[in-house]
TrEMBL record:
Native species: marine metagenome
Entry keywords, A to Z: Leucine-rich repeat, Repeat
Protein name in UniProt: Fibronectin type-III domain-containing protein
A family per Pfam: LRR_4
Classification via SUPFAM superfamilies: Fibronectin type III, L domain-like
KW ATP-binding (keyword) present: no
Length: 374
């Protein structure tokens, strides 16, 4: 009987122990910020670090930036990485951190950070020279000393105040020059270098342009034009290092207005041209360099004599021809049409026969024509 009573008592105690309630965890986790103090100035990329502990274990730590949840970390160390370059200098960032334990008890802390990237911007590098030869233009600049250098961007504009376009990017910090094979030194070519660091901060140094190429090539001298089965046109050789071509023009006008290109060569030793067409014209040589700059020579006229009824007549100087009653016979020679400076022609009272040659129509300056009594 005693044994049965003892057994029942033991079973009752065991049952009462199983029914006892487990005590609820209401203790929140501890939380502290170990990386920054409230009001601290920050720059570039920072890591906010929090320490949190709880007897029941920490389930997660949340980071808020200006009320927005930006990071949830469940493992030590509890961290949030923030790129401050996205914000203006002197802007205040509100940071809130909440720690949760496994019983959903929470602890939070809040503090402010002030953005100041004014001293974090990489130091600008300046252009040191812009030079050119006949084939290349070279741009040189200083080397960046920035510790978190990312790249150089070479900027270009035709004017100092114009839009700056990126024409080259270099990630090698020791790179200090750019070579261009297509360029025009007859106008300004402005260059700058933009230095960017690994967090995206950048600066632009002092720019520079080239010395403008404005001197035309040395002009050639056009020599006196002679005639020998054609006009012998000769000029002096251009010895400039930037020589590109000779261009020979002709015109009916003494001032070379309405001129026409009749010959062009890029051979500097080619200084002769023979024109076989016997027309009265004025001539001029233009020398052009590789930059397109030009110089003009003196103007020479192509003159020669034509034979009319056994006598020579200059096409340049013959302005009036009076052969009245000279006993001329035969037809009027068509060569008379080359005397384009004629203003008066008197052939009356001769024994001329045949039709009037159409070349008479070339005498555009002719105001007086007499052919009667032939």
């Amino acid at each position: 009987m005693t044994k049965h009573l003892t057994l029942l008592l033991f079973i009752g105690l065991a049952f009462w122990s199983c029914e006892e309630e487990i005590e609820e965890d209401t203790t929140p986790p501890t939380l502290s910020i170990t990386s920054h103090a409230s009001g601290q100035s920050v720059s570039e990329i920072i890591t906010i670090t929090a320490t949190s502990e709880d007897d029941d274990g920490v389930s997660k730590v949340e980071f808020y930036l200006n009320t927005a949840l930006v990071e949830t970390d469940t493992t030590l160390p509890y961290e949030y990485t923030l790129n401050t370059t996205q914000y203006d200098n002197d802007q205040t960032l509100s940071i809130k951190v909440i720690s949760y334990d496994n019983s959903d008890n929470t602890t939070e802390t809040q503090f402010d950070l002030s953005v100041d990237n004014s001293t974090a911007v990489p130091q600008g590098v300046n252009i040191t020279s812009v030079t050119y030869s006949l084939t290349v233009m070279t741009v040189d600049w200083e080397e960046s000393s920035d510790g978190d250098f990312k790249d150089y961007k070479v900027l270009y504009s035709e004017t100092e105040d114009g839009v700056r376009d990126t024409i080259a990017t270099y990630t090698d910090q020791s790179m200090r020059f750019l070579i261009l094979t297509e360029f025009d030194p007859t106008h300004e070519n402005w260059f700058w270098v933009k230095v960017t660091d690994t967090v995206g901060l950048s600066s632009i140094g002092v720019g520079m342009t080239n010395e403008i190429e404005s001197d035309p090539p040395t002009p050639s001298v056009l020599f006196h034009i002679t005639y020998n089965d054609g006009f012998q046109i000769n000029w002096s050789r251009n010895n400039g290092g930037d020589f590109q071509s000779y261009k020979l023009y002709e015109s009916l006008s003494e001032d070379m207005s309405n001129d026409t290109l009749i010959y062009e060569t890029d051979n500097r030793t080619d200084t002769t041209f023979i024109k076989t067409v016997q027309n009265f014209r004025y001539y001029q040589i233009v020398v052009e360099d590789v930059w397109g700059l030009q110089s003009t020579s003196n103007i020479e006229v192509g003159d020669y004599d034509i034979q009319l009824w056994g006598e020579p007549y200059s096409i340049l100087n013959t302005t009036s021809l009076n052969l009245q009653s000279h006993g001329l016979t035969g037809s009027i020679p068509p060569e008379i049409g080359n005397l384009t400076n004629l203003t008066s022609l008197h052939l009356q009272e001769n024994q001329l026969t045949g039709s009037i040659p159409p070349e008479i129509g070339n005498l555009t300056n002719l105001t007086s024509l007499h052919l009667q009594e032939n």
